[in-house]
Amino acid sequence: MKFELLASMMCANYGHLAREVKELEEGGIDSFHIDIMDGRYVPNFAMSLNDLRYIRSATNKPLDVHLMVEHPINTIDLFTGCLHSGDTIYIHPEAEYHPSTTLQKIINAGITPGIAINPGTSVENVRMLLRIVKKVLVMSVNPGNASQMFLPYVGEKYEQLLVLKDDMDFEIYWDGACGADKIKEFAPKGVKGFVLGTTLLFGQSRSYGETLKMIRELEL
Fold first, then answer.
1. pLDDT tens digits, one per residue of 48-64
2. Catalytic sites, residue numbers
3. Residues 191, 193: Cα–Cα separation, whole Å
4. Which end of the chain is less congested by CB atoms within 10 angstroms, N or C?
5. For residues 174 and 187, what is the distance between their CA atoms, to the nearest angstrom?
6. Phi-psi region of 187 (alpha: psi -120 to 50; beta: other; left: phi over 0)
């Protein structure tokens, strides 16, 4: 069963960012997940437009850009302007007065549109947007920090989205506290990709290549 593995670059070693990108790419990562935080929508700052630009220049792999910012429509052109066709931008619907307008700007720029759903956001609240987007990033932790505990009730949200995804034509991605057990359970059900951070990929004793190989060889 094929599924995608994404590296959460806010967890990378910024003293050796070029080496991190190279080793992840050589190890077989499918894409790079870029968390942009403004200190307002979430109580933290993480990664910058310049980080995004550098990583985009250092790899040919797709980028997944997760905007945890208030009113992304005000700055969306800055992000679409440094991305390529095949890259993705996720916005949080709660952060925008009219999220469909922002998503349309992403589409018009030739970038794949996505939404990120917080643990406290119900599927019903974003149901109409599911026909616009191509990807849904489901947060299994509250956004803003790495190394958080999994919130078990989020599993029900994945189940609800899995019922809708084929009819509405979107793919589901997992973000937060992603261990091997979550991949083993949800990849066979139809979750397309998993964002890997400190739980499974970064700060481990194995190389990135060894870790990614181990994940792909899981018995599903």
1. 999 999 999 999 999 99
2. 35, 175
3. 6
4. N
5. 10
6. alpha
